[in-house]
Design a protein that fits this description.
The protein is mostly helical and about 120 residues long. The chain has one domain. The protein is about 95% helix and about 0% strand. It is built from 3 helices and no strands. It starts with a helix and ends with a helix. The relative contact order is 0.12.
């Protein structure tokens, strides 16, 4: 009874932590890799060789706008991550509750199995 309940909670906790780590990886990947890549891709699209400075400025502006649009998404992800922390905390609390239930059940079983010895103990 308790074993299945505990396993479910541990699996739920594992899923929450994996989802959280995945979101963090995606966010770090964007910050570390995609920003520069997006700028150079845009620069290559708009650069016709006549005004490199202007093309570079336009590409930089494109990235700034892209980041601004993504910032709202990242902010939402941040709220989701905070919720994930709350869910993880609740899951840990649920696991602690299951552990307490197991301890209580084991103590009760031990007492019931040894009731005669306990009554005769002086």
């Amino acid at each position: 009874m308790f074993e299945g309940k505990a396993e479910k909670k541990v699996e739920q906790l594992r899923d929450l932590v994996e989802d959280f780590a995945s979101e963090l990886d995606e966010l770090a990947n964007f910050i570390n890799n995609r920003e520069e890549s997006i700028m150079w891709n845009k620069f290559e699209q708009i650069d016709i060789g006549e005004d490199v400075d202007s093309a570079l400025e336009d590409a930089s502006e494109y990235v700034r706008n892209y980041k601004y649009d993504k910032f709202r998404d990242i902010e939402d992800i941040g709220h989701e991550l905070v919720q994930s922390f709350d869910d993880i905390e609740q899951c840990i609390n649920d696991i602690e509750t299951v552990i307490d239930e197991i301890k209580d059940a084991m103590i009760n079983k031990s007492v019931y199995q040894n009731i005669d010895q306990i009554k005769n103990y002086k």
